[in-house]
Design goal:
This protein has 133 residues and is α+β, with helices and mostly antiparallel strands. It contains six helices and eight strands. The chain has one domain: OB fold (Dihydrolipoamide Acetyltransferase, E2P) (Beta Barrel). The longest helix has 12 residues. The protein is globular.
Length: 133
């Protein structure tokens, strides 16, 4: 029996922040990663790195069945096959989120990146009081 293929959306995207894009009217959370919020340290830099990656590109989003904060979760790819989540982690502007990725992107994290993005790291550990400061 064949595995069902994931639903996909393709198109140009609008970058909301370092781990959220919109294709048409659909907000998509990049699967398996966590980027700093816009108002947190490195948040604007993360957004603009994602803008740079996506600019002028047609993005293919493979939708997951889960919804995160009213956004669809998707693994998103550039036309050359690169995974946007992997590219953001490699750039040091997002963290692997093992709870959701199974550790898929952990090996791509630059050394010391969890100290740099301590707010996102605290959120992953469930320390939300620190995250909201």
């Amino acid at each position: 029996m064949e595995e069902p293929q994931p639903a996909t959306i393709t198109g140009k995207c609008y970058v909301v922040d370092g781990d959220t894009i919109r294709i048409g009217k659909v907000s998509l959370r990049l699967a398996g990663i966590d980027a700093p919020e816009l108002e947190h340290p490195w948040g604007q830099k993360a957004k603009w790195e994602l803008v740079k990656l996506c600019k002028g590109q047609t993005i293919t989003a493979e939708l997951e069945p889960s919804i995160s904060y009213d956004r669809v979760v998707a693994t998103c790819f550039l036309p050359d096959g690169r995974d946007l989540s992997a590219e953001m982690v490699k750039a040091g502007l997002a963290l692997d989120w093992p709870k959701f990725s199974g550790g898929k992107y952990a090996k791509l994290e630059p050394e010391g990146v969890r100290k740099k993005h301590w707010k996102a790291a605290a959120r992953q550990r469930g320390h939300m009081s620190v995250f909201h400061k």
